[in-house]
């Protein structure tokens, strides 16, 4: 039900906000938005990914969704968690979160979540990103680059997120553009 409501909102948003995605190489990306599915306790892979990107000179903002109503602890100023308490009845994130996403411009948006989560889809929809990357197909099409990864593998969440990230970075570094 939430996905159907999201699809309707996405189609409406797409009609009034034309967006043309463009490929961005890893070297040219300076501002990156990471989206991930959090367990609310231990997101070591995300912390490592953020540190790796920061060491490479990238500005990173990471938003994780924790599918519960219990309280969550934020890790740092650039790794933020939110949960069901921070969403409305349609699972759309609250205004504070959306305003932060809308007010920033990103070169890359990378969705590392294994499952399709409506709150993260809303962040993907409203984010101003030159290139949006995921390992999931969505309808309507939100992402410019989709890695077809078997999400049914038995890999733990941290291993999955790191694997998806490594694959995405490999392609961003490998593909050459002429601009």
How would you describe what is shown here?
It is built from five helices and six strands, in the order H-E-H-E-E-H-E-H-E-E-H. It has helices at 2-16, 44-55, 95-102, 118-126, 157-174, and strands at 31-38, 59-66, 79-83, 105-111, 128-134, 145-146. Helix 1 runs parallel beside helix 4. The protein starts with a helix and ends in a 5-residue tail after the last helix.
Strand order of the largest sheet: 3-2-1-4-5-6
**Helix and strand composition category:** alpha/beta
Helix content: 25-40%
Count of helical stretches? 5
Count of individual domains = 1
What is the assembly state of the chains in this entry? single chain
Taking the alpha carbons of the first and last residues, their distance comes to 42 Å
Low-confidence stretches: none
């Amino acid at each position: 039900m939430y996905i159907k409501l999201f699809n309707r909102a996405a189609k409406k948003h797409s009609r009034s906000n034309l967006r043309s995605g463009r490929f961005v190489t890893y070297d040219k990306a300076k501002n990156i938005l990471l989206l991930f599915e959090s367990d609310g306790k231990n997101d070591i892979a995300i912390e490592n990914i953020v540190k790796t990107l920061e060491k490479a000179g990238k500005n990173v903002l990471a938003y994780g969704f924790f599918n519960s109503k219990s309280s969550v602890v934020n890790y740092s100023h650039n790794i933020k968690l939110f949960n069901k308490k921070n969403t409305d009845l349609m699972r759309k994130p609250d205004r504070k979160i959306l305003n932060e996403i809308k007010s920033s411009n990103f070169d890359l948006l990378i969705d590392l979540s294994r499952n399709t989560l409506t709150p993260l889809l809303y962040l993907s929809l409203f984010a101003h990103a030159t290139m949006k990357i995921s390992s999931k197909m969505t309808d309507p099409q939100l992402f410019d680059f989709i890695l077809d990864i078997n999400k049914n593998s038995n890999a733990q969440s941290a291993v999955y997120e790191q694997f998806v990230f490594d694959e995405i970075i490999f392609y961003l570094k490998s593909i050459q553009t002429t601009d």
